[in-house]
Each structure stands twice: as structure tokens, then as C-alpha cells.
Inverse folding.
């Protein structure tokens, strides 16, 4: 049976295989037909943007530009189904250190092994539905590259675009935020909490993760051309370096000193200079400090909770490395 998905780039080729995929696609189509709802389009997402040489199957003509998303002809990934993933790396990719899979769960990372330029492993999504983010990290020409690919894992007996939202609303009515479990394979869509003034670290982290790139771009733009303002300051100069209009009092002092041939005196002058100490820049600094503290606190709590669990070590080292970065 041929691969259900082939993705070719300049650095690697990804092949995905699964058995009896048509059966699951028919079940999903029947569920939508019974509800009178058309199948929602699905896609592959890339972070950072990726230059794709070939995608099979695909509905879009590929270009030379790096893309963040490519549509798929039909749903390919389903719950409770076994999939095999194989990354075949180009000869230019370094063998030391070996390319590795990146995921926040150590169980996912441990299911992959590298041999003869091939990183191979299998995943069963179980009952986890939603967006699954799979990363691969490798080194080429002395540069470490981390490429993430995301795809949607579909259920077969419900319409995820509508039913899942109703289920979450019912859950949140009784147990707000209970559904945001950290140790899951997929990322669920987020909704606002019903509890006023409630602060949930995982919810904050999930929102921050989606906005981080935009925040970085904004910070870099401000650092390259920051706001400034003129602030007064005082400095002392000798008489021969005085310029411009002087106050009458200062003129009198200078005249007296020169008449007495006292040239060693210095005179306080008030000037103006540009300063980066503006309300806007202080706000940006406060945001960066607060985000850094919150991420550090979240990582510390996650490490403590992970050590206390009976199945400690479920969170992979790459998850903590991502928090550090």
C-alpha cells in the first residue's frame, strides 16, 4: 500500500503510512452527511515557514516561496489509528549530533529512532483529537534547525468543528479549564474561562505560544527604531566653551571671573539630549520581564509536578528546552 502522505524539502523527505485509511474517511464523510454538514478543509502547517518541493497529495501548485500552510485534498489523520512516520535526511545533514524528533511528551520522542539517515517511528493518537505538532531537529552547515509540522487529527463519529465546541462548553460550565490537560498529544482550541479574574498558567502559555512570534517582531522593530524624548540635564564647562545665549546672572559671573583673570572656573549649563526612558519603552521592558518570570515559574511548577507523578518523565526534555528558548 502506498504512503498516504509524502513531503519533500531540500533537507529531508517525510513519508507517512497507515493501513485502511479509506474506511475512516468513509466514516467521517457519513457522519457529516448524516448531520447535513460538509467536510471542513484540512491542511498542513509549518513553523517556521518551509520551502516545500513536493507534496503528495496536494491541491496547490508549489512555488519557490517558503509557506506556512498547505491544503490537503482530504483528511488523513484520525483518532485511534496507527501511523508510521519516516524522515529521510539529505546527505548534507550532519550525523553528529543525530537528527531527533521533538515533542513535549517523552513517549512520543521515545517512539522514534534514527539509523542510516532515517528517523523512523510510529504514533497512535488514541482519543486525542485536534492539532498535533510534530517537530524535527537537525544540524546542517553548523546551524541547528528545528522545523515543526502540524496537522489535524479528526474523530470519526462527530463533527469536530461544532460538536467539540458544544462539549467544551458543557465541561467548562461545571469544571472550568479542566479540559486543558498538559500531557496530551494534540493541542485543543482555546476558549475563555467563565470564572472572573481566573489565571491559569497553561492557558496563558498556550496563548503566549501563539503570539510569541508577533511579539518578537514587534520588540525587534522597537529596538531598531525606539521612541525617544528630550530630557534636560546639566553639565559643567569652562568659559571658552560657552555657546549661545546665557542668562544675565551667568554672564555677570563669567565677566567678573575673566576680569579677575580666573580661568579655572566651570559653569553649570542646562542642555537637552535624547533619552530612551519613555513610557512606551518602559512598558515593553515590563512585558518582557513579566513574560520571562511567568515562563520560568511555569517551567519550575511543571518540573515539580512531573517528578511527583507515578509516571514521571512524561514531559520530554525538548519541551523544557523550548520553554528555556
Amino acid at each position: 500500500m502506498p504512503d498516504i502522505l509524502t513531503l519533500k524539502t531540500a533537507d529531508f523527505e517525510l513519508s507517512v503510512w497507515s493501513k485502511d485509511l479509506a474506511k475512516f474517511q468513509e466514516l467521517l464523510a457519513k457522519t457529516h452527511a448524516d448531520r447535513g454538514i460538509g467536510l471542513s478543509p484540512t491542511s498542513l502547517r509549518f513553523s517556521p515557514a518551509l520551502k516545500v518541493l513536493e507534496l503528495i497529495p496536494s491541491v496547490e501548485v508549489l512555488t519557490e516561496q517558503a509557506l506556512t500552510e498547505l491544503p490537503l485534498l482530504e483528511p488523513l489523520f484520525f483518532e485511534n489509528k496507527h501511523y508510521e512516520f519516516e524522515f529521510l535526511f539529505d546527505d548534507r545533514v550532519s550525523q553528529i549530533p543525530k537528527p531527533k524528533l521533538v515533542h513535549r511528551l517523552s513517549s512520543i520522542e521515545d517512539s522514534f529512532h534514527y539509523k542510516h539517515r532515517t528517523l523512523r517511528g510510529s504514533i497512535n493518537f488514541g482519543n486525542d483529537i485536534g492539532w498535533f505538532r510534530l517537530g524535527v531537529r537537525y544540524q546542517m552547515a553548523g546551524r541547528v534547525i528545528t522545523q515543526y509540522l502540524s496537522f489535524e487529527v479528526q474523530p470519526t463519529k462527530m463533527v469536530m468543528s461544532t460538536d467539540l465546541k458544544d462539549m467544551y462548553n458543557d465541561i467548562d460550565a461545571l469544571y472550568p479549564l479542566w479540559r486543558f490537560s498538559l500531557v496530551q498529544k494534540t493541542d485543543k482550541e482555546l476558549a475563555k474561562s467563565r470564572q472572573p479574574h481566573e489565571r491559569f498558567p497553561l492557558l496563558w502559555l498556550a496563548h503566549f505560544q501563539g503570539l510569541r512570534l508577533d511579539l518578537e517582531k514587534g520588540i525587534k522593530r522597537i529596538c531598531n527604531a525606539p521612541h525617544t524624548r528630550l530630557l534636560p540635564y546639566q553639565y559643567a564647562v569652562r568659559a571658552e566653551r560657552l555657546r549661545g545665549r546665557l542668562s544675565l546672572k551667568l554672564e555677570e559671573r563669567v565677566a567678573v571671573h575673566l576680569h579677575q583673570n580666573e580661568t579655572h572656573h566651570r559653569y553649570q549649563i542646562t542642555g537637552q539630549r535624547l533619552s530612551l526612558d519613555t513610557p512606551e519603552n518602559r512598558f515593553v521592558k515590563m512585558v518582557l520581564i513579566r513574560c520571562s518570570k511567568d515562563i520560568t515559574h511555569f517551567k519550575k511548577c511543571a518540573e515539580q509536578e512531573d517528578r511527583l507523578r507515578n509516571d514521571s518523565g512524561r514531559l520530554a526534555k525538548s519541551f523544557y528546552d523550548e520553554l528555556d528558548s
Notes: The chain has a mean pLDDT of 83. The radius of gyration is 30 Å. Residues 229-275 form one domain.
